Amino acid sequence: MTAIEASGLRKSYGDVHAVRGIDISIAAGETVALLGPNGAGKSTTIDMLLGLADPDSGEVSVFGGPPTAAVDAGFVGAMLQTGALIRDLSVRELVSMVASLYPSPLPVDEALELTGMSALADHRTQKLSGGETQRVRFAVAIVANPKLLVLDEPTVAMDVEGRRSFWATMRSLASEGRTILFATHYLEEADAYADRAILMAHGRIVADGPTNEIKAKVGTRTIRATLPDADLDALRLLPGVSSAERRGEAIALSCADSDAAIRALLAEHSQARDIEIVAAGLEQAFLELTGDGAHSEPSAVPPAEAVT
Ligand SMILES: Nc1ncnc2c1ncn2[C@@H]1O[C@H](COP(=O)(O)OP(=O)(O)O)[C@@H](O)[C@H]1O
Ligand SMILES: [Mg+2]
Question: All domains of the chain, ordered by start, with CATH?
Answer without folding.
Answer: 2-212 (3.40.50.300), 219-279 (3.30.70)
